[in-house]
Amino acid sequence: MTNISRTILNTQLFLPDPMRLNTYNWEVYKIAIHALCHANHLQEHLERHAHADGPCAHEDDLRKWDEDDQLCKALIVLNIQPELLGRACKIREAYHSKDRGAAYLWELVNGCEGYFSGPACKKRREAC
């Protein structure tokens, strides 16, 4: 397999500010993350758990899967507003975990939908 180096530009990592996850735009964020992952050929990482059903046949494929999965995790986390990410320890832990892939992280983020919205939001220290 040929080793292809990928150059990532900031514009490929960050959504415009109104599309980054905040307390009122879950649907926009989800659509935007899917589009961003699709543009970077990572859409499969949102749905498929790494190694769950043997997506990689060769060592090079496995390494590429892991690298792409890390990139997908970065796309998810870098596009969450800091004030929300600061209160979501499970999401931060999943991002840093070597054992948890992008699909797991995406499930956590989706499981938090609606948690930060509403008047009680500012009273919560920790979420999800």
Descriptive overview:
It is a single chain. With 128 residues, the protein is mainly alpha-helical. It is 47% helix and 0% strand. The chain has helices spanning 10-13, 26-39, 59-78, 82-85, 89-96, 102-111.
Figure out the total of helices: 6
Mean residue pLDDT: 81
- Taking pLDDT < 50 over at least 5 consecutive residues as the criterion, the unreliable ranges are 119-126
How would you characterize the largest beta sheet? Answer: none
What proportion of the residues is helical, as a percent range? 40-55%
Q: How does the overall form come out from the CA principal axes?
A: globular
Name the structural class.
Answer: mainly alpha
Straight-line distance between termini: 40 Å
Tell me the fraction of residues in β-strands, as a range.
Answer: under 5%
Query: Could you state the order of secondary-structure elements as H and E?
Result: HHHHHH
